[in-house]
Amino acid sequence: MSEVDFIYACDASAVPENGALNVNLDGEEITIFHTPDRFIARSGFCKHNGFKLELCEITGDTLTCPLHGWKYSVSTGKGIKPSYTRLETYPIVMRAEQLWVQPVAQKEEDDFDTSAFDW
Ligand code: FES
Fold first, then answer.
1. Can the peptide bond before residue 82 be classed as cis, meaning omega within 30 degrees of 0?
2. Which atom of ligand 1 is nearest to the CA of 51?
3. pLDDT per residue over 62-93, tens digit each?
4. What is the pLDDT of residues 14-69, one digit of tens each?
């Protein structure tokens, strides 16, 4: 269990259904997605070149970055195009119609560091 507290992110009503909203919590940019069955918190920027994820297109479970076409699964955070990338996940809870996020990314085993690539 992390020692970092959950921080108030926004009211649940601020995140459009089938949409997303970026919030900055303690310097951590996080995108909150509102899927048909839950809220999901992921890293706030595209892994390719840092486009804000709240401005990307969401079609079903697919998040598409308009700049160069990278795609991600909203539900898993895994890259679709390319498949080796992944959006980090943050713990999120809803309390009295408010969303609270723990701004510490949960590391996944297959995280892939793309920072060494020359795009
Ligand atoms: S910044 Fe998202 S695909 Fe390039």
1. yes
2. 1
3. 999 999 999 999 999 999 999 999 999 999 99
4. 999 999 999 999 999 999 999 999 999 999 999 999 999 999 999 999 999 999 99
Check if the beta carbon of residue 39 is closer than 8 Å to that of residue 90.
Answer: no
CA dist 12 and 98 (Å) reads 5
State the Cα torsion 31-15-67-73 to the nearest 10°: 70
Indicate the top mutation candidate among 53, 56, 67 to test ligand 1's pocket, ranked by most ligand atoms within 8 A of CB.
67
Residue nearest to atom 3 of ligand 1 (CA): 68
Ligand 1 centre from 12 Cα, in Å? 27
Domains identified in the chain and CATH numbers:
7-101 (2.102.10.10)
Going by the DSSP 8-state scheme, the letter that residue 56 receives in this structure is S
Which residues, 6+ apart, have CB-to-CB distance to 41 below 8 Å? Answer: 9, 30, 31, 32, 33, 89, 90, 91, 92, 99, 101
